[in-house]
User: What shape does this take?
Amino acid sequence: MGRRKTPALFGTQIRMMEINPMQYDKNRYKIWALPHPLILFWILNPVMIINELILGQRLPKVTLIDKESDAPFAERGYVPCPHCETLNDGRIWAKANALGHWFGFICPNCHQIIPCLWSISSYAVLAVTYPLWYFPVRFFRDRWIEKEKTRLAKVLERPLIQAVDVNWYLIGIFFWGGLMWLVMGVIPEAWNVLNGEEWDLMMLFVFELPLWLVTGFGWGLWMHFTMNKKGKGRR
Assistant: This one.
């Protein structure tokens, strides 16, 4: 069968095969793809602008969760490559390798780009700023891919992270809670100051900061139990 190229946003080109898409064993794997609720949450959440466009944190279009494994949830996720059909361990793009993937994930097997999602908010920003990023992206894209290959090789040399090694409480408090405080508290307050108002430090530090830190702790608590929850294994 022939192949056709379809243009994709942010300089990424995805090769679409004119045959049936990759098939998955639904008896063994849970398939996380649209319209899965957690995928919809990612797409509709405006905060993902920061994760995607600034930090380069991406979510693959398809994630498979192994239902037959008794490992913790964080160790049962796989990212399929639509080009070579390899099922890649999702932990490859975790922790130190979780950020910087603006163009998508690079498959360790065939070095093609695994398609990832964009949130609606990121799509809107990219569409409006198209003239600003189009030529820089065309210039740096191939260089980024080569650096990603080198980075990926270093990741694969080390043991993959284990679920018990991740402190979700600290991540929730300082990363999630701190980020939300910055986006929902500091930035709006700074905007008000630029428009002639005075800093409301009482609201910012006495009310909003503790609120978001506690909320971040709650998020971390939920993530701790979710990511460490073991599968039922083969029945």
